[in-house]
Amino acid sequence: MMDKMIIGRYIPSNSVLHSMDPRSKLILIFLFVCIVFLANNAITYGVLVIYTLLMISLSKVPAKYLIGGLKPVIWLVLFTLFLHIFLTKEGTLLFEYGWIKIYEEGLRQGVFISLRFFLLILMTSLLTLTTTPIEITDGLETLLNPLKKFKFPVHELALMMSISLRFIPTLMQETEKIMKAQTARGVDFTSGPLKDRVKSIVPLLIPLFISSFKRAEELAIAMEARGYRGGEGRTKYRQLKWGMMDSGMLVFLGVVTIILTLLRT
Amino acid sequence: MDISLQQVEYRYQIGTPFERLAITEVSIDIPSGTYLAIIGHTGSGKSTILQHLNALLKPTKGKVVIGNREITSGEKQKNLKEIRQKVGIVFQFPEHQLFEETVEKDICFGPMNFGVSETEARARARKAIKQVGLSEEILAKSPFDLSGGQMRRVAIAGVLAMEPDVIVLDEPTAGLDPRGRKEIMEMFYKLHKERNLSTVLVTHSMEDASLYADEIVIMHKGEVYKRGEPREIFQSPEGLLELGLDVPEVVRFQHKLEGTFNTKLDKTCITLEELTEAVSGLLRRGELV
């Protein structure tokens, strides 16, 4: 059921992207999300597309798999595409049929915005596909560390994040298991009238809630039993290492940014 | 109801980097009234086979015949409820599926999904709760106020109340104390005999398999490694021991005894009684020196 979801998945490999420091990857993604908005013509979008394709090839993630992962968001993208095509009334009129009028600018905007969507989704997927959740939270914790001065609970936030990320697959498995058990007892989750389907959520949700609460309690006890008492003075087993590649990639994105600012209209 | 798996293959998450072959070339026949045990290590494909028995999973290759229905990879199946009513599955830790306010409602949930009237379902609940060895008073309680062992029994009652022809058990005694284990296994065996059910037991326990099953299938790395009656299977325990699978204590004792004294007992013993008899026979004849 969740086979096609790629958001939040991690694919183990030994690619360049996999071996990078999570901090540099987080910064890269953050910058990328910003500079995507610099692009406003065909050439600048071309530069972004080339950059993304380069990153994909560096990640060694099978392209077929990435494209398969775009399927769940395709409707959202198509929706925005058509909104732009039909609602923008600038530029020359390209096509007219009854009340439908398509303008050049609308088509251009629509295509660009959809492209922007795809680029953002691809890049953020690349982050999670090449970085384990633990690395991401570790990276985030160190990046946010300066905020501790303002009494911002950085460690607690990171812990919460890593616990929830850690339990997403568990929860998914649990959901599937209980769904199967209830299907075997005659519940139909996939067909039938809407009313029945809404009702069939109850035998799924209640066991899920109960097991989640139980698990939370067990986890808390297990952590305390092993001496956990907050982040104060806690050392790390995994040390983050900033390498040449990390600085190199940041410089490279900087160059891309400069090119974008020069080429945009 | 006969079930037969023919050259079944199943791959999880087909078409993704996570694709994994779970079982391949599995052919098993389960004629009506058989008690079949499926044994193997974790990850040997036992649970995958189990989910094919009531069409929770569709084979990626080969076919599964359940009664007069045929489940193959391609076509979309309609109306699988009929199959699910006839093949009841007791999953591992079935107490996790309880959700109703009262035990009675939870037991009635299955039957009523299959179109049984409320009065009939209640009657079945009373019957089922006795079958699993609990008293009727428990019916009015919340399932979440019960002990772990009681919850397990209630969940099992919920499957029994569906009155299936085939009952599939996935490690039904995992996490129970020895007495609870024995009681539950005895109960299933009694039901099997009385109602002439087909029973499929997926287990780690060679002991249970050898005591109750007519036939044992040993799974190894997604393939059927060996199948046969318990006595055949345990005749040459070396292979099993090599795979790191347990053999029943009785069999292991016989194997060691035969090795030490360089002798052979008359037959492969399964129960303690048989073993005692065989060994005392040897002693009486003075063959153990």
UniProtKB/TrEMBL annotation, chain A:
InterPro entries from the xrefs?
A: ABC/ECF_trnsptr_transmembrane (IPR003339), EcfT (IPR024919)
Q: Where are the transmembrane segments?
A: 26-54, 74-99, 111-132, 244-263
**Organism superkingdom:** Bacteria
Keyword Transport belongs to the record: yes
UniProt keywords (A-Z) are: Cell membrane, Membrane, Transmembrane, Transmembrane helix, Transport
Compartment(s): Cell membrane
Answer whether the UniProt record assigns the keyword Cell membrane to this protein: yes
* Recorded coiled-coil stretches: none
The record describes its membrane topology as: Multi-pass membrane protein
Q: What is its main location?
A: membrane
Extract the PANTHER family matched here.
Answer: PROTEIN ABCI12, CHLOROPLASTIC
What the record says about family reads: Belongs to the energy-coupling factor EcfT family.
Q: Which function does this protein serve?
A: Transmembrane (T) component of an energy-coupling factor (ECF) ABC-transporter complex. Unlike classic ABC transporters this ECF transporter provides the energy necessary to transport a number of different substrates.
Quaternary organization: Forms a stable energy-coupling factor (ECF) transporter complex composed of 2 membrane-embedded substrate-binding proteins (S component), 2 ATP-binding proteins (A component) and 2 transmembrane proteins (T component).
Q: What is the protein name stated in its UniProt record?
A: Energy-coupling factor transporter transmembrane protein EcfT
Query: Which organism is this protein's natural source?
Result: Robertmurraya mangrovi
Name the gene behind this protein.
ecfT
Automatic annotation (TrEMBL), chain B:
Q: What class of enzyme is it?
A: translocase
According to the entry, every stretch annotated as the ABC transporter domain falls at: 3-246
PROSITE patterns recorded:
ABC_TRANSPORTER_1, ABC_TRANSPORTER_2
Q: Which UniProt keywords apply?
A: ATP-binding, Cell membrane, Membrane, Nucleotide-binding, Translocase, Transport
The annotated topology with respect to the bilayer is:
Peripheral membrane protein
Chief site of localization: membrane
Name the job this protein performs: ATP-binding (A) component of a common energy-coupling factor (ECF) ABC-transporter complex.
PANTHER family assigned: ENERGY-COUPLING FACTOR TRANSPORTER ATP-BINDING PROTEIN ECFA2, HEAVY METAL TRANSPORTER
Q: What is this protein called?
A: Energy-coupling factor transporter ATP-binding protein EcfA2
List the source organism.
Robertmurraya mangrovi
